[in-house]
Amino acid sequence: MNQNYEYFSYDDDIVKKFLLATMIWAGAAFLFGLLAALQLAYWPLNLNSEYLTFGRLRPLHTNAAIFAFAGNAIFAGIYYSTQRLLKARLFSDLLGRIHFWGWQLIIVAAAITLPLGYSQSKEYAELEWPIDIAITLVWVVFAINFFGTIKKRREKHMYVAIWFYIATIITVAVLHIVNSIELPVTFLKSYPVYAGIQDALVQWWYGHNAVAFFLTTPFLGLMYYFMPKIADRPVYSYRLSIIHFWSLVFIYIWAGPHHLLYTALPDWAQTLGMIFSLMLWAPSWGGMINGLLTLRGAWHLLRTDPLVKFMVAAITFYGMATFEGPLLSIKSVSAVGHYTDWIIGHVHSGALGWNGFLSFAMIYYLVPKLWSTKLYSLKLATTHFWLGLVGILLYYISMVSAGITQGLMWHAVNENGKLVYPDFVETVTRIVPLYWVRALGGVLYLAGFILMAYNIWKTLKTAPKDQKEPTYAALKPNFESSSGETTHKKLEGMGLVFSVLSFIAIAVGSIVEIIPTLSLHKYVEPARVTDPYSALELAGRDIYIREGCYTCHSQMIRKLSAEVLRYGPASTIEESMWDRPFQWGSKRTGPDLARSGGKYPNLWHYRHMMDPRSTTPGSIMPNYPWLYTKKTDYLVLRKKLSVMQSLGVPYTDEQLAQADLDAQKQAMSIVEDLKQNGVEDPKLEEKEIVALIAYLQAMGKKERAE
Amino acid sequence: MSDDKKDIKKLEEHFDGIIEHDHPLPNWWVATFVITVVFSIFYYGYYELLDGPTLDQELSVKMAEIEQQQKDSVGKAFDNLDQDVLKQEFIDKGKVVFAEKCFMCHGQQGQGLIGPNLTDNFWIHGNTSQNILHVIQKGVPEKGMVPWEAVLSAEEQIATVAFIKSLKGTNPPTPKAAEGTEYKD
Fold first, then answer.
1. Contact A319, A350 (CB under 8 A)
2. ω before A306 within 30° of 0 (cis)?
3. Model confidence over A643-688: pLDDT tens digits?
């Protein structure tokens, strides 16, 4: 026996915990998604319930899918593969458990607060400030545990999967912290420090890179470990992995503004967003090539092994989505695709195909290994694959058709210079049948998952009762760099330097894009004075945010002729300069509302929110009966205005002191108008509907030329 | 202890046994990368550094075209308004438009709801065909009447005027109280 051998075991218990959590939250995420899909096809499924209405369910679905399902899958895969790639037990068992239970608590907190309407309305960053802090702390625990493991590794060089994990951990920390800088108003309410175009830019820098560094880079790392393991084949090209890793990490971070094309965001930032998205195409495909060509010489496995089927389909969907992404980032394509269901189809080919299928392959691979048994049924896994695949295809095809159909209808202008489909609702009813097809796709995908859950459960039942952690032995390597190594090989032996370089790679694009807009005044024309919202309008705005109206309505008229014809002059930077958070939205299931103020009388809104179909036949919007019984919180308004004032919104001290009185006065004037038009509802001025009407009537009305 | 060590697996392989080949970069992949980078440099240069049009400029060119089309199309459509509104074919067509777009605010039978009663002798903005057409086209934004110019074709606008005129004196149940000035023809 060589005396230099060190003996150790792996912490596989933590991997098991994260795997089971992945399965549980996957079920929740899929169920919420299916219900949301059915609500769009058949509005009564909003159930007149404040807690399950689409605007609150949609953030619950996206958070569950990204942070609960994909998040737990990432942690399981990273903890399993990192220990083996570095020949070291995790840095700390305790930190692993704090990470696990902390993350599950955050998910539970999200599952409670989002249906209750506590939301910052920033997509994939909806959770309120105490949860934001908890996420930061748990992420730091994860980082310490991960980098601590790198520190005590017995493998000199870090394999490509580890590079992707490093980039993930650093970048997600930066994204989350920068995007979540906010001032608390109450225990579960805050306003972001960013306003208008700043907030839009920071949010979509975050939102886009949540896709990049939470749903792409960690999964590429998992692919680099699990694809060669499952197929038992060598990785295709080491040098390709170097080039595509660094180019991907450097370029991805710039692409966020492609979510904001033709908006009020300054042109230069939009153009950067578009060109970096185009340049991202090849780096993304570098990962796909390395994944798929790992199978060269073993394509027959694709016929026989369901795990290989899942893997190859996942990588293929990754390739499709990363081709479609740059395509959608081209300005003229974005003009048609943005705000439509095309985007929904695009993200689901990524989420269901790439993230979902890769996670499934990983779970099917890991469960028998970790529990020292065999998978209960390969046949069931194959059936799962086909159900899932048909489900994704139905989902994708229906949503792309719906999106392109609706996008073209919105933009159709006839030879008389008029909109061909001036009624927005006409473009909605046209695609409702496709919403049913999408829901059917969701049913199939969920059915496949249920088969998987059954398969895994049966597998676990066959696991031997007493399982010992096996002991391994490895030599402690010599960490000094040897002369024969290339520069990059040397770098792979230096954990800290590698991490610092990754940080620099993502910092460049972030700094270049975000810093200029931090001095917002540079972009604001002094002649266009915009008044801040009155106290009552602000109260109404917070109701708008709470109900997730932004999940279906934009407040951004793009610089496109058809939008100007439909909604009025293009939105300006000044109009949203006090908006915290911005409400530009990303999807138009309903029409844009940027200039809806004054378009209809108060009575119209009063009836519309009670039953949208009474004013707009064919509408698929939910009813909001609770707004007619819940009372506006007038007392908190002084606090709200004072937080806004400290963020630089020009409220006078007098306005602060009078906030609740001013709001009540404005409410009375709206109620008077409603009464004159026949509404009889005692104490109406106390109700939330009045505050919301005040806000809806203020939209697009706050700018005045001086 | 020595017995136990037989079960201990020695980890001699690197990267958990994963082997990395080092195939050269595919040419088509390198070409794709280079083309997108070169295109991007030119694209940014043209639009942001040289004299490429801004989005605002592109929009105003497009809007000027559309406004011209709108002007050209109006032409003589409304020349025979007073005769047209009496024709039954227009009244019938107007009934359809009303049932789609107007009843939410003016009631199924024009008796008034959110908007005013259209069946009585009282008019807020005048009772001539021209007056009614003008309200339909431009709306009354301060009262919540939406402009329909962009939505309805010229023929539909005339038809709607025709139908509204035909409602006079129909005395539907539950009318909204009279608003505006009385016109006794």
1. no
2. no
3. 999 999 999 999 999 999 999 999 999 999 999 988 999 999 999 9
Model confidence at B3, pLDDT cuts 50, 70, 90, reads very low
The answer, yes or no, to whether residue B78 has pLDDT greater than 90, is no
Q: Which two tokens stand for residue A141?
A: 């625990």
CATH code for the domain of A458: 1.20.210.10
Complex-level ipTM: 0.93
Question: Residue A705's pLDDT band (boundaries 50, 70, 90)?
Answer: low
Instruction: State the pLDDT at residue B1.
Output: 40
Interval A280-335: pLDDT, tens: 999 999 999 999 999 998 899 999 999 999 999 999 999 999 999 999 999 999 99
Hey, is the C-beta of A413 within 8 angstroms of any chain B C-beta? yes
Whether A630 and A489 share a structural domain:
no
What average pLDDT does the segment A575-591 reach?
A: 96
Closest CA to B21 of A295, A235, A241: A235
Give me the mean pLDDT over the A553-580 stretch: 96
Rounded to two decimals, the pTM is: 0.92
Q: Tell me the residue type at A20.
A: L
Cα atoms in the Cβ-side hemisphere of radius 13 Å centred on A454: 13
Structural domains counted in chain B: 2
**Shortest Cα distance from B166 to chain A (angstroms)?**
24
Query: Domain range spanning residue A644?
Result: 530-705
Of the CA atoms within 13 Å of residue B87, those in its CB half-sphere come to 11
Residue ranges making up the domain that contains B44: 23-56
Amino acid at A652: T
CATH number at residue A632: 1.10.760.10
Nearest CA in chain B to A697: B144
Residues 55-94 (B) with a CB less than 8 A from some CB of A = 55-56, 58-59, 62-63, 65-70, 72-73
3-state SS string for A620-670 = CCCCCHHHHCCECCCCCHHHHHHHHHHCCCCCCHHHHHCHHHHHHHHHHHH
Q: What is the mean pLDDT of chain A?
A: 96
| A413 has pLDDT over 70 | yes
A489 and A628 in a single domain? The answer is: no
Which chain A residues touch B67 with a CB distance below 8 Å? 417
Contact B9 A155 (CB under 8 A): no
Q: In 3D, which of A682, A670, A683, A686 has the Cα closest to residue A635?
A: A686
Which positions 645-704 of A are in contact with B (Cβ < 8 Å)?
Answer: 677
Closest CA to A92 of A103, A81, A83, A84: A83
How many Cα neighbours within 13 Å face the side chain of A418? 17
Contact between A547 and A56 under an 8 Å Cβ cutoff? The reply is yes
Residues of B in contact with A276 (CB under 8 A): 40
